[in-house]
Amino acid sequence: MTTHNLNGRIALVTGGTTGLGFGAAQCLIEAGATVYITGRRREVLDAAVEKLGEGAIGLQADVSVKADMQRVADTIKQAHGHLDILFANAGGGHATPLEQLTEEQIDSELSINVKGVVLTVQTALSVLREGASIILNASITADMGLKGFGVYAATKAAVRSLARSWTTDLRERDIRVNTVSPGVVPTEGYGKEQKMSDQDVADYVAHVSKEIPAGRVGTTRDIGNAVVFLASDASNYIRGIDLIVDGGMTRVYAGKN
Ligand SMILES: NC(=O)c1ccc[n+]([C@@H]2O[C@H](COP(=O)([O-])OP(=O)(O)OC[C@H]3O[C@@H](n4cnc5c(N)ncnc54)[C@H](OP(=O)(O)O)[C@@H]3O)[C@@H](O)[C@H]2O)c1
C-alpha cells in the first residue's frame, strides 16, 4: 500500500494490461487515481480492467498509431477535461545477435519504444493539465552494454534523452517529465518477447539475484511504487531525472560478495 495521495487524479498508463504497466495501474488506483490503461489485445485488456476493478478504464490502442493515441487523449478530455499523470510504459524487445537482426525487429522496437513514446506524449499534450507529471519507462539496459540488446538499449537511451528535452519543452506549462529505469522484473514479456520458458526464467532469477544488493529481482509493485512517487506532489521538485529501480544492481558491485 502506497502512502502517496492521488485522490481525484486522472492517469493514463500505456501497455497497462500486463507486467509493469499493470503493476503501476494497481499502485496508482490504490493511491486514489482513476486509471486509463491501453493495450492492443482486446481480451487481455478486458481481463486486466476486470482484475484492476473500480478505478480502471480500458481503451484498445496501439502506441505506434497516432490516430489511436489521439482517440485516447480525446476520450479522456471528453470524460474529465484533463489528465494529471501519464506513464508511457508500452514497449518491449529482445536479445538478438547483431548479425541476425532483421529489419522487422529494428523497425518494431523503434516504432513501439521510441515513436510510440513520442506519439503518446505528443497526443496527450491536448489534455495534460498544468502541473501534470509524465513518467517514461526506460530501462537499466540503456547503459549496461548487454549482449544482443543493442537496438533495445538504444531505444531506452532515446527515452531517457526525450525526458530531458521535454523537461525544457514543457516547463512553461509546469509539466514535469522523468524516466524510471527498472531492473530485472520477470513479467509476461519474458515469455512473450524474450521467448524464455518458465524454467529459463527461474534459472535466470536464481542466478541474477546473487548480483542484486537487494537479494532479489524486482516486482511490478516495486516499479509501480516508484511511478506513484514520480506522479505525486512529493516529487514536485524532481525534473528530468532517471530514477533507477533495480535493487542496486547497476549502482553497486555485489556480484562476488
Ligand atoms: N520487465 C522488465 O524486466 C523490464 C525492465 C526494464 C524496462 N522494462 C520496460 O517496461 C515496459 C513494460 O514491459 P513488461 O516487462 O511489463 O512487458 P509485458 O508484460 O510484455 O507488457 C507490455 C505491455 O505493453 C503493451 N504493448 C506492447 N506493444 C504495444 C503497442 N504497440 N501499443 C500499445 N500497447 C502495447 C502490451 O499489451 P499488448 O501486447 O496487448 O499491446 C502489454 O500491456 C517496456 O517498456 C519494457 O521495455 C521492463
Automatic annotation (TrEMBL):
Pfam families: adh_short_C2. Residues 9-189 form the Ketoreductase domain. Keywords: NADP, Oxidoreductase. CDD domains: SDR_c. One of its GO terms (molecular function) is oxidoreductase activity. SUPFAM superfamilies: NAD(P)-binding Rossmann-fold domains. It comes from the Bacteria. SMART domains: PKS_KR. Belongs to the short-chain dehydrogenases/reductases (SDR) family. This is Oxidoreductase. It comes from Massilia aurea.
